[in-house]
Amino acid sequence: MLIVKATTDIAERDIRKGDEYRLYIVDAHHHMGKEKSHRNTPAGSYDFYASLWFEMQKIAKQKSDSDSLLFEPVRVEGHDLASRCFESRKSWARLNHGWLVDRTVVFPYTDDYAIPENPNEPTFKISNDKIAGWTTRAPHSSRLIGFARVDPMDEQKTKGLAVKELDRSIQKLGLRGLKLHPLAQLFVDSIEDKMTKDVVKRAGELGIPVIFDTRNISTVMKIKNLVESIRNDPDCGTAMKGLRVILAHCGMSPGDPRLYEVLKDPAIFAETSTMHDLDVPALFESASERLSRQGFSWSEKILFGTDFSFLSVQAADVILYLLSHDFPGTLADAQRILGGNALSLVQRPFSTSAGVQIPPVEYVCRDIGGKNQIALEDSILKLLSNDYWDLSSLDVMLPPAGTWPEPVKLSDGGFNGVYLDSYVMCLRSQSSDKEMHLWVRRTAGDSLSCSLLSTKGLARIDTVENASQSLNPVLLRNLSDHSVTLKSSDDLSKKVLSQLT
User: Fold this and answer.
1) What is the dihedral of CA 117, 119, 120, 126, to 10 degrees?
2) Going from the N-terminus, what domains does the chain have, and what CATH number goes with each?
3) Rounded Cα–Cα distance for residues 345 and 81 (Å)
């Protein structure tokens, strides 16, 4: 997380010079694997973020001298639980750095593993396996979110091959989104064709976001037409409900009015990688002007991304612009762009088809000061380090859709819209197919609840929105029937561990 400090009083926002705030950052565009001279692993990503922070500090010093920053970046700190996960094993501890960015959406390059040796197998099969290997196991699963890649052109080899690989990647491997690259896979002229539509339709049915590489406004318009064709197809009703499309690189067209007309579509969003220098103010000024009266906040439509390792320190331009006097939004808008939007689009907690149904149970206790929550977390981390369970994901809770609070200064708690102490942890047994969600949440009055849930069936948690109206009503009824209020908060860890060991 990035800690920033106000450089001046902002009376209308009740901000005083010197007030510090915490910003949770998600990189929504990041490659892993190997493609010619480009190679990247989780360790390389964390090193990159450490380098990006170093570069930001240098640029910020220059901007501070010219008085252009409204908020000055002062330090970075890791999410406490994720950082402790890395510290729980000696071999992981050396990777506990680079915390400028808290979560990273990663997907394959068009890499050396993309083309299968067996022509009957789908493109990217091995690549997707490698992404899942990195992103669904501790400790990296606390920081990385894996997206699959498929090639719609596989339809020309075997009917339905790309869709089958997408199903496998999401349902079996647990990947949580899809990257499509029309230029690299040579289907720019086929974006609106049935083979691409079938893949994107299936992504909508699975409820996962799709990020398209876009290099020009022509590609953006084709994607818009594709979305419209799905919307107008009576056979795509379910798909349309779950469809969320991200335009990587903003079509490299931040000055084109057509980009913002496309972004008025409720299913389409933009991502900032490749934006640098004058592109950055052009993007945010145009978005705030052209999207402000659309029934949603304009800042909901833009996601921060780096496109590492193809690009590197250009991302500093975006972050520092969001902290500048020139940025046409509030700190809440900046937090949405830097992380909230990406988390909201992924939204659904990790799960695969491998889990078995278990009866839900909820334990509730008072936890003044949070010491019992820390004890519970330490007990879970010990299970991970001893190889009883693996951690497939750690998903923080978020505000209700369409809302985002203004960040609170650190001296008053530092809440920035991301519930750092309320989360869904997906645990997978090392010795069986058992998979479960551990749902921890703090509520008013120092109340702490911990629920152990199946990842499949009707009584499951299917959103990280921290709002009762957004939660599965079957789940809420089941928890009400299986809730245990503990007489002593010291019993919480014992009760939870009894379900896990």
Assistant:
1) 40
2) 25-38+107-346 (3.20.20.140), 361-500 (no CATH)
3) 23
